[in-house]
Design brief:
With 534 residues, this protein is an all-alpha fold. It folds into 2 domains: 269 residues, no CATH class; 246 residues, no CATH class. The chain is 75% helix and 0% strand. The protein contains 23 helices and no strands. α4 packs antiparallel against α6, α13 crosses α17 and α15 runs antiparallel to α17. The chain is globular, with a radius of gyration of 24 Å. It starts with a helix and ends with a helix.
Length: 534
Amino acid sequence: MLRYAFRLHRWGLIGFAAVLVISPYIQAAAFAQAAGSTAASRAAFARDMTVLAVQLSYLLPRPYRVDTLAGYLQWRAWGTLSVVITVWVVAAAAGAVRGDEEKQLVDSWLAARVSRPRLVASRLAAFAAAALVAVLAAGLSTVLSAARYEAVGLTGVAGKALSLWLLMVTLFALCSLVAQLTASPRAAQAAGAALVAVLYLCDVVARSQHSFDGLSWVSPYRWYDATDALAPGGHLAVLGVGLSFGAILAAGGLAALAFGRRDLRGPLLSLPVRAAPARDVRPSPALGWPVARLLYRQRWALACWTLGTAAVAIFMVVLAHGSVETVVRLPGMREFLTHGSSDRYQGFIATFWFGLAELLVAGFAVHLVSGWAADDTEGILAAELSAPRHRWSVVAERAGTAVAGTAVVVAVGSLAAAIVSAALGAGLDSASVFRASWPLVPFGLTFAAAGAVTAARWPRAAIGVLGLLAFYSFVVAELHALMSWPAWVADLSVFQLYGTPLLTDVFWNGLWAMLAIAVAGFGLATVLLRRREV
């Protein structure tokens, strides 16, 4: 049972372990390039990073000893890993609790007289084993990457790796618990994502407001950040370790009790439903339109992504208005942050807001692909094809949904950025915002096309493969200038193909390349879906 449960995590393990391995390698090279080798240059670098950390507190923890390679890796590489693994944890927990029930695997196991507490324990142990493999790979990568420049302490790496492993297992146990309250894999993912978002915000608020330090200790992310053992002079947060073990045992035990008290494919709690009088109401004609019906099924997710993108746009524009002068004074960072623009505000917005908008669009594409993969594993695709229906029309409808949904997310986010910028008296004009916005639609379509290929052939691997592709593409685009990589390496990134249309004209060669990738991707997805037995 445990071995089979471990196999179910293999695609997520492969994809996210690769991310955990490559991040320390890249950040070690970046430190050696930017910090220098003298004590004075590293001290200046540490001061600059401390100032920058205030602006990036929503993404990174407080820095500690960033004048050393080990301290910088702890802050910049291991600091972001806690965000990266969240995607895997939420998807894995929803699949373990609700996905296996939808595929009737749990029915078979219960029929074989496997007890419900044993099922819960085996799934928790299986993910813990997969997470341990990924964390060990990250630790080994950290040691080997740093060895090219200077040695890091094995004890420190082990302490930080332990805290990351406990964070992953704790979040998995908590997401498994809330998944017992839902009735479908999609609802379980939404509930898990909402839970980890709240826990993450509890930690993020305390990073800039010390008055919330007490509140932050309810968050497993705070327990992880409290361990700074990787940096020289750091320590292992014993309290965080103890709280993590306690949360794992408590959440796992409550999940087992909840599983024992509910019906299969049913929520733990259900409100009594009063019988409503039957009414002969005709359904909306829009539900018969190919793209509209898919958008209707994902209407709540689309609404959340749209509102979230608008909120991030407003936050980043306000942040740019208040901190652009401070950030561009950082030595060696002005060119990187403003792309050489004479207008500091425009350059800052191009880097931070539209750079973050690319990530949000890529994340929305990942969400769409997760829905397509779920349709396959949950039997929805088989039901649609039995209508009967041409398989090429399924892929075409998915492509249309990706275009329409991405356009809505981008339009609302860019409109919010333009309105707030105008209210603050900044210099973002509508023509520049529009020029920077519409290429985001083919940008998102490239990720959707890559995900469509994977979902058509290997549905279970779709999220891991697409997440890995997005991560590598982002890293290449962000570091190629800092690391002085050849131009052809940068051109392999979809983020590079988007360019900086807010500051310059549209990068037409990159646009044609993105459209070619999208056409080829959805075309290949059509061929693969026609040849595969659903």
